[in-house]
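Thanks for the sequence, V.! I ran Ubiquinone biosynthesis monooxygenase COQ6, mitochondrial right away. Repeating your input here for the record:
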Amino acid sequence: MVGSSLACALGLEKSLDDHKILLLEAAPDRPQEITSVYSNRVSNITPGSKKLLESIGAWDHICEMRYKPFRRMQVWDACSDAHITFEPGSRDLYGSKDMGFIIENPVTLEALRKQLKMLHSRVKVLHGTKLKRLSLPDLTKDLDDEDVRDTWASLELEDGRTVHSRLVIGADGPQSLVRQQASMDSLSWKYDQTGVVATLQFGEITDNLVAWQKFLPTGPIALLPLTDSLSSLVWSTTPEHAKQLVSLEEDRFVDAVNNAFWEDLDRNPLVDQATRISYMLASFVQPWTKVGFGTQSPPSVSGVEEDSRAIDAAHRVHPLAGQGVNMGFGDVACLRDVLSEAAQEGKDLGSLEHLLTYETKRQQSVVPMITAIDALKRLYSTSNPIPVLARSVGLIATSAMLPIKEQIIDFAMR
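Predicted structure:
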């Protein structure tokens, strides 16, 4: 999705009309199957990412297919009564009434495929093609050297062809061959968690405009709206528990999901008392914020769409905040702007000067997000009373402090 969206963005940039754009796509050139059955692979697209998709023409194609907006997000702790509700405020940067949009990955991919077809005169796509070897240029050579082998990157493809380019952008996933052959370092770590995904049916039809997320000690469980009667499940848990969940009979799996959302874990009396006092203090200090009003509960799950249950171990970023693809779309918007400015100034697109500007800008956005996701994961992965008390008081305080809460919402909607 990220590579295709970048190709569209660059292809539409007038300042890059003098440059050739090539997209190497390993998948064959065929439409995504969008049937009446909803895919169990979905993404939470933020208003910021929607703005990018609108700018490259892909959003219109998505609207012709299907998507589901949600207006609020309710988050709560399994080990206490602490909870918080996020919804766009009057100062929302995007003027959106929606927190986000749940879109099936095949729908987004098909929208981008259609848009690339419309940009065929600007973007050449080689389908069914993979990179075999990448050779980087000798940066000590004169850029005006006529021998492109010295000053341009060389891409040897598996079909025997060779392509030369001043700028190679690697958007080929966590096991990126481009990154490996360019000897780029990356920092990664494992959480020893696996995601279980499924498409769930509700017992009754509702507006279904709320995304639900509950923090369990084994990992977060979330319901993301698909239709008035369907939601997508993303349940992060231990690998052993994930295997058990997908092997259950449907009725037992439904019970497990409902129990995970509705049942409370064993509570520590001191934590419960401290939580109640915290809510009382918050309501006294900020009586207009409705802090402490009871949590709503998600609709009761009644069934599972056939063949929708699966183990999803493909996450690059922990899914608890649903920000993986949005960070990628943020990369696209930033790189497009940086390259456009460089082209307008007549600079070499392959030089480090403006690419370092891109790196700095994205680190300022991505590093805080990843740090926050990692901290939340670690903080909520225990039922020890001391961390439970700390996170409960922190969540209540955040809910009461509107300026901080609004900053979190703005950051999450980018």
